[in-house]
Amino acid sequence: MDCVGVVIVSHSPKVAEGAADMVRQMVGEEVPLAWTGGNPSGGLGTDVGQIMAAIDRAWSNAGVVILVDLGGAETNSEMAIEMLPDDRRAKVLICNAPVVEGAVVAATEAAGGSSVDIVQQTAEEYSAR
Amino acid sequence: MDLGADLRAELVRAVATTIERHAEELTTLDQAIGDGDHGLNMKRGFEAVLADVANLSAKPWPDFLKGVGTMLVMKVGGASGPLYGTLFMALGKELPAEPTRADLPRAFRAAIAAVQARGKSERGQKTMLDVLYPVAEALEAGAAEGPAIARAAHAAAEATIPVKAVRGRASFLGDRSIGHMDPGARSSALMIEAVASVLEKA
């Protein structure tokens, strides 16, 4: 059974990588995981092409959830999803949840084999607590 | 009017030049109420468009506009990439292969709706929409003179100064966002002025 993949998108590559490290240590290796951060010149920001590449690295037939930090990370992730091939687009969801906590909660839920909707919902419920 | 490759290239150069010239000012505005990268991001985006101007401007209007939009989406690196990218891509989708001025008001209105959906924002929230809507209204009212359209755009950007932001990073500031012009409204007004002045001569 495929686990839902998790993508972490932050303006800062250090934040994204650090959050991914926490997921690996707390949840383990079974969940497909990728991170990206930084704008196309390497400064703080996000990059649509890199987000698409991260979705590809974390791809799972069960789908992928994306955790984002602020404004542009969300807008650029939405854009990246729209630019995906038709058969992938509907399986990728952005979680309205804090990036670190949301990533750990989403990956924990994904590791249990939940669907992409449930993984998203669980991460979002955690943030609403 | 001639709606050919030369005109498309001139539009690109005019917009890229005004963005380059005002990059520092846009960044300063964004440092006040945003994350301080708007000028740099827009400059990076339009430098990429400019570098590809020969290729882009050789395409017919719909493909040219989609190409410009896609380049901005991929190169800008902030929320303004998808927002301006969507504006250009939607214009490309809405305009016929050989557009005339009469096609512009409807296409512009549709493109603004696409930007509004992308940004999940509305008019009056201290964003680029606060400039785009008044310009759409000026076009619909038959404004054809470049300076009149530019004046409408700049007046609309000025009018964002007393508004409190409720979208984007500026919204975290609450009342402290009051008293600053929205950087996206400013960049929109600059681009509209550049486009209007080129089209007027065309």
What does this entry show, briefly?
The complex is a heterodimer of chains A (129) and B (202). With 129 residues, chain A is α/β, with parallel strands linked by helices. Chain A is built from 6 helices and 4 strands.
Count the E strands of chain A. Answer: 4
| CATH fold-level name of chain B | Serine Threonine Protein Phosphatase 5, Tetratricopeptide repeat
Low-confidence stretches of chain B: none
Order of strands, main sheet of chain A, comes to: 2-1-3-4
Cα-based radius of gyration of chain A, to the nearest Å? 13 Å
Proportion of helical residues of chain B:
55-70%
What CATH first level of chain A would be assigned?
A: Alpha Beta
CATH homologous superfamily title of chain A? Phosphotransferase system, mannose-type IIA component
Count the helices of chain A. How many? 6
Please write out the topology.
The complex is a heterodimer of chains A (129) and B (202).
Chain A: E1 5-10, H1 13-27, E2 33-37, H2 48-57, E3 64-68, H3 71-82, H4 86-89, E4 92-95, H5 99-111, H6 116-128
Parallel strand pairs in A: 1-2, 1-3, 3-4
Chain B: H1 5-33, H2 38-51, H3 53-57, H4 61-75, H5 80-94, H6 104-119, H7 129-140, H8 146-158, H9 183-201
3D structure, described in words:
The complex is a heterodimer of chains A (129) and B (202). By secondary structure, chain A is α/β, with parallel strands linked by helices. Chain A has helices spanning 13-27, 48-57, 71-82, 86-89, 99-111, 116-128; strands at 5-10, 33-37, 64-68, 92-95. In chain A, strands 2-1-3-4 form a 4-stranded parallel sheet, sandwiched between helices. The longest helix of chain A has 15 residues, at 13-27. Chain B is mainly alpha-helical. Chain B has a single domain, classed as DhaL domain (Serine Threonine Protein Phosphatase 5, Tetratricopeptide repeat, Alpha Horseshoe), CATH 1.25.40.340. The longest helix of chain B has 29 residues, at 5-33. Classes of the chains: A alpha/beta (129), B mainly alpha (202). Chain A binds chain B through residues 11, 39-41, 43-49, 70-72, 74-76, 78-79, 83, and chain B through 35, 37, 40-41, 44, 73-83, 85-86, 118-119, 168-169.
